[in-house]
UniProtKB/TrEMBL annotation:
This is 8-oxoguanine DNA glycosylase/AP lyase. The gene is ogg. NCBIfam families: PRK01229.1 (NF002305). It comes from Candidatus Methanofastidiosum methylothiophilum. One of its GO terms (molecular function) is hydrolase activity, hydrolyzing N-glycosyl compounds. It catalyses: 2'-deoxyribonucleotide-(2'-deoxyribose 5'-phosphate)-2'-deoxyribonucleotide-DNA = a 3'-end 2'-deoxyribonucleotide-(2,3-dehydro-2,3-deoxyribose 5'-phosphate)-DNA + a 5'-end 5'-phospho-2'-deoxyribonucleoside-DNA + H(+).
Length: 220
């Protein structure tokens, strides 16, 4: 392991991982079962959730998704009805439009068909590229988050502020980029992937560990 890494933080991360490894495995198994067993509406709710998360608190976004589902606005509400459910979500006017647009994108013969559309692609990388290209408001981070949450993100990274902050503190990266282009995202993801091999924590486990380190919980 390179000497430039912060050994104290790595030790902290490894200790956290040892203490919550089983919980991480259980959560990832839940995500896999979501894909296998859940309704199209619930799969779509994960997509909508990830569209809401940029620059907003994840719990606030999930609360809005729950309200959207309870009022049936997620599946059939108009833009105004969707907007009314987005409590505490930043840029909610834009994001309400995004939900309406992506809902139409994921319909076949008038019905939500997330599985069929996603299954038309192959690897997680190809699915992610398709999502970024076709879903307005969805970048690599959000697409990676969505794929992880439906059990299809085993070897891709969710490079949110918690992850980037810790990669910098550890010494994996020198600084947090002011903006992340698609090529920069892939570059950082590859750097993180190599780092996970060195510390022997799987990529899809490490981002949960780093989230837990910052927030004290395993969420979505």
């Amino acid at each position: 392991m390179t000497n430039s890494y912060n050994s104290e933080i790595i030790k902290e991360i490894q200790d956290i991982y040892s203490s919550i490894k089983k919980d991480i495995e259980n959560r990832l198994e839940e995500f896999t079962k979501l894909w296998e067993n859940e309704t199209e509406e619930n799969l779509f709710s994960e997509l909508a959730f990830c569209l809401l998360t940029p620059q907003s608190k994840a719990k606030m976004c999930w609360s809005s998704i729950c309200t959207l589902k309870e009022t049936n606005a997620l599946v059939s509400g108009n833009e105004e009805q969707v907007l009314a459910c987005l409590y505490g979500v930043r840029f909610k006017y834009k994001k309400a439009k995004y939900i309406i647009q992506v809902r139409e994108l994921f319909k076949i013969d008038g019905k939500l068909s997330v599985k069929k559309i996603i299954e038309g692609n192959n690897s997680p990388y190809e699915i992610r590229e398709w999502l970024v290209k076709n879903v307005k408001g969805m970048g690599y981070k959000e697409a990676s988050h969505f794929l992880r949450n439906i059990g299809k993100g085993k070897d891709i990274a969710i490079l949110d502020r918690h992850i980037l902050k810790n990669l910098r503190l550890i010494g994996v990266i020198e600084k947090i980029p002011e903006s992340i282009t698609p090529s920069k995202y892939i570059e950082l993801e590859n750097i993180m992937r190599e780092f996970t091999k060195e510390i022997e924590i799987p990529l899809d486990h490490l981002d949960i560990v780093l989230w837990y380190k910052e927030t004290g919980e395993i969420f979505k």
